[in-house]
Amino acid sequence: MESPIITLTTDWGQQDFFAGMVKGKLFGGIPNVRVVDIAHNLPAFNTAHATFVVKHGCLGFPKGTIHIIDVDTNASLSDNLVVVEHQGQFLICCDNGIPALVCGRDFDRAVVIKKESAEHPTFVALDIFCDVAIRLALGSPLETIGTPLENLNETPTWQPIMNGNRLEIPVAYADSYGNVMLNITRDEFEKYRQGRPFEITILDATINKIEDTYILKSDGIMMNTPILTTSATGYLQIAFFRDSAQRMLGYSPNDKLIVWFR
Predict the structure, then answer these.
(1) Among candidates 75, 77, 80, 114, which has minimal Cα distance to 97?
(2) pLDDT for 156-206, tens place per residue?
(3) CA-to-CA distance for 256 and 170, rounded, in angstroms?
(4) Taking the chain (262 residues) in consecutive chunks of 10 residues, what is each chunk's mean pLDDT?
C-alpha cells in the first residue's frame, strides 16, 4: 500500500495527549501514512464495547490496513500482545478476548509479539504497538515480528445462551443516541426463535415483535415505549424514539437481556 492506513481504537479519552504521542511516532516512522481515529472515548477496560466498535468500524477498510487497538491492555505485559491477520488486514492488540470475538476462529494468521525492553512499559501502544505497525507498514513479514499462535483467547460468556425457552443475550454496546445494541444479529435471533412467538419484558412494557423503524404508534398516537429493532450493523437493539434507552433502562455492556419463547 503506497499510503499505508493505520487506525486507532482506544479507551484513552479525548482530553489527554496519548493519541498525539502515538500519531507523532507513526507519522515520523512511516512515509505518507494515513492515521484514522475510529474511537477514543470507549469505556475504560470494556472489551465487550470495544469488540463491537472494532467489528463494525474497522473491517471495512482496504486490505493491508493496520488496526491498533488499545483497550484493557495489561500494563504489566503479562498477557500476550498479538498481531492477527484477518481478511487481509492486521489487528495489533492484547489477546484479552477482543481479537477472538472480532475474528472468530477463521483468522488467517496470528503471532505473539516478541517483547523487548520498553521505555514506557505502561504505554504499550506507544512503545510496542507503534513499532510493530511501522514494521508492518514498511513491509516486514509477519513471521519476523513474533512467534506463531494457533488459538486466540476466547470469552464464551459473551455469547447468547439458550436454556429451554429462555434466551440470554449479552448487551454489547450503547451508541451516542443511547440505543442499546445486543450481541446477536437478526439472523441469529431467528435461528434461536424457530418461528415461535417471543416476549421481552422491560419496565412495564412487553415487546413481542421486531419493528422496522424507531416510530411506534397505537391508534395514530406516538408511543414512548421501548422497541426491538435492527441496527445498521444487522444486530438487534433496544431503542426509544428520540430518547436514550440506556438512560431509561440502565443497561450497560455485559448485562443480559432475557427473551422468552412460547
Answers:
(1) 80
(2) 667 899 999 999 999 988 888 999 999 999 999 999 999 999 999 998 889
(3) 4
(4) 92 92 97 97 87 93 97 70 96 94 93 73 89 97 95 81 94 90 94 96 90 71 79 92 87 87 92
Show the cell assigned to 114.
516478541
Residue with the three cell numbers 424514539 = 241
**Buried/exposed 56-89: b ≥16 CB within 10 Å, e otherwise:** bbbeebeeebbbbbbbbbeeebeebbbbbbbeeb
Q: How far apart are CA 135 and CA 241, in angstroms?
A: 47
* Dihedral sign (CA 52, 128, 152, 80): negative
Strand partners, 69: 9
Residue in 242, 253, 36, 262 with CA at minimum distance from that of residue 133: 36
CB 14 within 8 A of CB 41: yes
CA atoms within 13 A on the CB side of 95: 18
The torsion of the CA quartet 178, 12, 115, 36, rounded to 10 degrees, works out to 80
